[in-house]
């Protein structure tokens, strides 16, 4: 009865992880769409209006710390008062939405980390679940801290954060390979996370020479979308209790071979008598 309850609790936790992963993938997709819209708006403003003023706005959105973000919003308000009002206000709206969605993704990944902690607490064999939880927290903490780190401090924080997210999905792949299934490369969430984190880290490094970061972040988030979208399906296949349960014992072989039919001297078939096993020396002798 207890094993049935444990299995039900484990399935409930996996369902929560699946639902949260689905929400994360959905909001990451929203981030990708908003990022593409921002790139289009920046491009229109850059080529249609005076490039010098717009480049100052765009340069403030190259970095993601809060100081540059506020400065970029302030420049957009100034641009709206002096010209291209519609484009400026649309950029402000989409930028604020992007910021809010980013916070939602962080909160959902933090919730996901708590679910993985519960997963290991319920099933002790899943020792990798606690590692997933820790690296998820590293990602959320450093990504949030990057907003308040001026200069190039946020670049280092972003690189470590995304590398940590990649480590968490590597541990998830270990759980899958041991207690779940072995997906193909196109469905492997660890490969998608590796590709996404690699792209984001490379574009973050390129920021030291003033290369635009937003396109790399968008491409990286596309791979992140597939990674979390696959996680929501693959987590349901994890079944360590069933896999670790030993197979049912086979029927024990008899200690004495069964009697075999023999042909007597008269030509009839008889069952040979098998002598009974000797009495144990530990048995008490009857008086």
Question: What does this protein look like?
Answer:
The protein has 287 residues and is mainly α. It is 71% helix and 2% strand. The chain has nine helices and two strands, in the order H-H-H-H-H-H-H-H-H-E-E. It has helices at residues 2-48, 51-62, 66-82, 85-122, 128-146, 153-179, 189-206, 214-234, 240-244, and strands at residues 261-263, 269-271. It has a two-stranded antiparallel sheet. Strand 1 (261-263) and strand 2 (269-271) form a beta hairpin. Helix 1 packs antiparallel against helix 4 (85-122). The protein is elongated. The two termini are 49 Å apart. Residues 280-287 have low confidence and may be disordered.
Strands of the biggest beta sheet: in what spatial order? 1-2
Percent of residues in β-strands: under 5%
Provide the low-confidence segments as ranges. 280-287
Largest β sheet strand count, sense and barrel closure: 2 strands, antiparallel
The count of helical stretches stands at 9
Based on DSSP secondary structure assignment, what is the total number of beta strands? Answer: 2
Helix fraction, binned, reads: over 70%
Rg calc: 32 Å
Give the distance, in angstroms, between the N- and C-terminal Cα atoms: 49 Å
The secondary-structure class comes to: mainly alpha
List SSEs in N-to-C order: HHHHHHHHHEE
* Mean pLDDT across residues: 77
State the shape.
Answer: elongated
